[in-house]
Known about the structure:
By secondary structure, the chain is of the alpha+beta class. Helix content is about 25%, strand content about 30%. The protein has two domains: about 5-145, Aminopeptidase (3-Layer(aba) Sandwich), CATH 3.40.630; about 155-295, Roll (Thiol Ester Dehydrase, Chain A). The strands form two sheets. It has a seven-stranded mixed β-sheet with strand order 1-2-3-4-5-7-6, with helices on both faces. It is globular and about 60 Å long.
Amino acid sequence: MYQVIEPTTAEQLERYYQLRWRVLRQPFQRPRGSEQDEYDQVGVHRMVVNNAGEAIAVGRLHFNSPEEAQIRFMAAAPEYRGQGHGVAILDELEQLARREGARHVVINSRDNTLGFYLKCGYEHKEQADTVKNPSAEHQLRKTFNDINRIIYRPDWCHELQQTWHHDIPISETMGIQIRQYSGREFETQAILSRNINVHGTMFAGSIYSLATLTCWGLLHLQLRERNLSGAVVLADGSIHYHKPLTREPRAVAHVANMVGDLSALTDGRNARMTLKSQVFDGHKAVAEFSGQFVVLAESVSNSD
């Protein structure tokens, strides 16, 4: 279990700065203390911790002007990389910058992290000459808009949203929107007033549709992550309802719960996958969905 916190106690801050030094300064033989600067006193700090309180990932936000925020000292423990913790930190800091009125955020990045930030919707502001100076940093910028409120692959999510509304008109009627994508987690939401029954709660069928589309969307994005293609169809699904839903609904699906083998697509064969999602009323899960999906390979017919 991981959570994003603001380090405030002496113990938390020690772990925060220790990770910052271990990842960003120790490899360059820099001493302890070099991982801090004068903006630490006025900046906002976030840290991902595990159940033991260990620092997994860290990052800091400060303002250069009322309209420009800057994110610095992003670092993830090497043994935990690739699990979405850096995305979680970036999301927290960007949300804070938006709430505080920033119009854009800037980041400096070396070559080894450049791809990560580009996937998170950042654009080159100034490209460094890393041939002459391998440690030079690129200057990146993200101007806030409604599309890049999605932290990871915002362009892909925008395309997916448009596909839903064009090819699955009921999704627009229900008010289904992509709320967030982190690369490891996919979250959607719907408008309760468009899906309400005579009891003032959400239609069971609408809950099922939201849960199904959330799994479908996550699988679609994961295909793109793997440079695979194919038509995603639902083969079978089941849902368990815990209680009526009375507030704005949202649904979440996790890559960790995706079971199956997509490699069959590379051989021109269909792939079968099982995905799960939960529908929430506030912070309480009110329904759990499990679906069996088939990804139809482009080179075969709809039946294999």
